[in-house]
Design goal:
Length: about 375
C-alpha cells in the first residue's frame, strides 16, 4: 500500500512540474517579447532601405545606407524628415560595359573603344568598322568619346556618397504601429518638388542603351557639336562646389529656404544678406570663376553687373551670359550633361553638376544648400556643358 501511494505521489509531481515547465515565462522570454515590437521609425527605415536597394542595386554595389532623422512627430500620424546617405560603387568594371556607352558603341559597330590608344589607331579602327563615315564625322566621334571616357574612367571602381532628403507620412494605428501600404515617402527635388521614393530610380538598362544610341547618332549627324576648346576646368567647378556647400537644415531668417552661410566662401566672397535666400547663381558663378573663367567688369561681376541683367547672381542672366554672350558652354540634353556642367531650371534655380556616371546625376547647390543630391532629368530645364 505504501509503495502504491509513493508511486501516485511521484506521478503527480511529474505532472505538476511538467506543466510548470511548459507554461512558465522566464524573465529572458518576457524581455524578448517586449523588444519584438517594431516602432514606426524602425518600420519606415526598413522600408526606405529596401526600396532604395530595389531601385539602385541593379546598377550599383551599395556599401552602406544610413538615415539621420531631422524631425519627427507621432501625433495621430507619424511624420518625419530624414536624410538618407548612400555609399556605393558602380557595378560595371569598365566604361565599355555601361548601358549608355554600349548603346553609343553599337551605332559604330564596336564593343569597346580604344580610349588609351593613339589617335591614328582610333581613326583606323573607326574607318574599318564604319567605312561610310567621313573624316569630319570620325573626328567628332573621337572628340565626343574621348571626353566622355575621360570622365567616366574616373568613376569606375570609385566609391562615392549621395544624399536624399525624404519626407515621411503614415497614419498610426491604435497600437501605435504603421501599415506600410499607407506609407508615403517623398524625395526632395528642386523648387520643393517631391517624387515618390518608389519612382525615384534610374532609367531602365534598355532606356539608357537607347539614350546612348540616340546621342551617338546626333554626334555623327552634327547635332552634337562639342566646343572647340574648354574655357574652364570642369573638375575645379565640382571641387569648389563640394567644398562650399552642405546639406543644410538651417533656414534663411523668415523663409523656408535651407541655407547655412557659415559653410560658404565668405573670405573670397563676403556674405550678403540680400543673397541669403537666393544664392544659387552666385554660388555657380563663384565656382566658374575658381575654375578659370575670368571676371568681366560690369558684365559678369558680383553685384556690379546690373546693366547686363545681373548675370552673376541671376539664374536666367547667368544662363544667357554663358551660352549667348561669353559662349563658353553649349546646350545639351539631360543625359549629356557632365561634371562641371550647369543646370538652370525654368523656375529660376541653378545647380552645379558634380557627377554624371550616365546612371545618376549628382548636383551641388545653394538655396536650398545641397551636397551630392541626385536629380531626375527634366525636359524643361537647361543643361549647359563646358565642352
Amino acid at each position: 500500500m505504501k509503495l502504491k501511494l509513493i508511486s501516485v505521489i511521484a506521478v503527480l509531481v511529474l505532472l505538476v512540474t511538467g506543466c510548470a515547465q511548459t507554461t512558465a515565462v522566464t524573465p529572458a522570454q518576457s524581455t524578448a517579447q517586449k523588444t519584438s515590437y517594431i516602432t514606426p521609425k524602425q518600420s519606415v527605415e526598413q522600408y526606405i532601405k529596401q526600396t532604395y536597394e530595389k531601385n539602385y542595386a541593379p546598377f550599383y554595389n551599395i556599401k552602406s545606407l544610413s538615415l539621420t532623422t531631422i524631425s519627427e512627430s507621432t501625433k495621430g500620424t507619424y511624420t518625419a524628415t530624414t536624410l538618407l546617405k548612400a555609399t556605393k560603387t558602380l557595378k560595371y568594371s569598365t566604361v565599355d560595359s555601361l548601358p549608355y556607352i554600349k548603346g553609343a558603341l553599337s551605332i559604330l559597330n564596336l564593343q569597346n573603344y580604344p580610349f588609351n590608344q593613339a589617335q591614328s589607331q582610333k581613326v583606323n579602327i573607326l574607318k574599318q568598322k564604319n567605312p561610310q563615315l567621313t573624316s569630319n564625322q570620325i573626328q567628332r566621334v573621337i572628340t565626343f568619346l574621348d571626353k566622355t571616357y575621360q570622365e567616366l574612367t574616373k568613376y569606375i571602381g570609385s566609391s562615392y556618397d549621395s544624399y536624399l532628403f525624404l519626407y515621411v507620412s503614415v497614419p498610426l494605428t491604435a497600437s501605435k504601429t504603421i501599415n506600410t501600404s499607407s506609407l508615403k515617402v517623398m524625395v526632395e527635388q528642386p523648387h520643393y518638388e517631391r517624387v515618390n521614393l518608389s519612382s525615384f530610380k534610374p532609367l531602365s538598362t534598355e532606356d539608357m542603351t537607347n539614350e546612348g544610341k540616340k546621342d551617338m547618332q546626333q554626334v555623327i549627324s552634327g547635332k552634337i557639336m562639342p566646343l572647340s576648346k574648354t574655357f574652364y576646368d570642369p573638375w575645379k567647378v565640382a571641387e569648389y562646389a563640394d567644398k562650399y556647400t552642405s546639406n543644410s537644415v538651417k533656414y534663411c531668417p523668415g523663409t523656408s529656404v535651407a541655407s547655412d552661410p557659415s559653410k560658404w566662401n565668405n573670405t573670397k566672397w563676403p556674405y550678403s544678406s540680400s543673397l541669403c535666400d537666393s544664392d544659387c547663381a552666385d554660388f555657380a558663378s563663384q565656382a566658374l570663376n575658381y575654375a578659370g573663367l575670368s571676371i568681366s567688369a560690369g558684365r559678369w561681376e558680383r553685384l556690379k553687373d546690373s546693366s547686363n541683367g545681373w548675370p552673376w547672381t541671376s539664374s536666367s542672366g547667368l544662363r544667357n551670359y554663358l551660352l549667348n554672350q561669353r559662349k563658353v558652354v553649349r546646350l545639351v540634353e539631360p543625359w549629356q550633361i557632365r561634371v562641371g556642367g550647369i543646370i538652370t531650371t525654368n523656375k529660376g534655380h541653378t545647380m552645379i553638376v558634380v557627377r554624371n556616371d550616365t546612371i545618376e546625376t549628382l548636383t551641388d547647390a545653394h538655396t536650398n544648400d545641397r551636397f551630392h543630391e541626385p536629380v531626375l532629368p527634366h525636359s524643361s530645364w537647361y543643361y549647359l556643358n563646358s565642352w
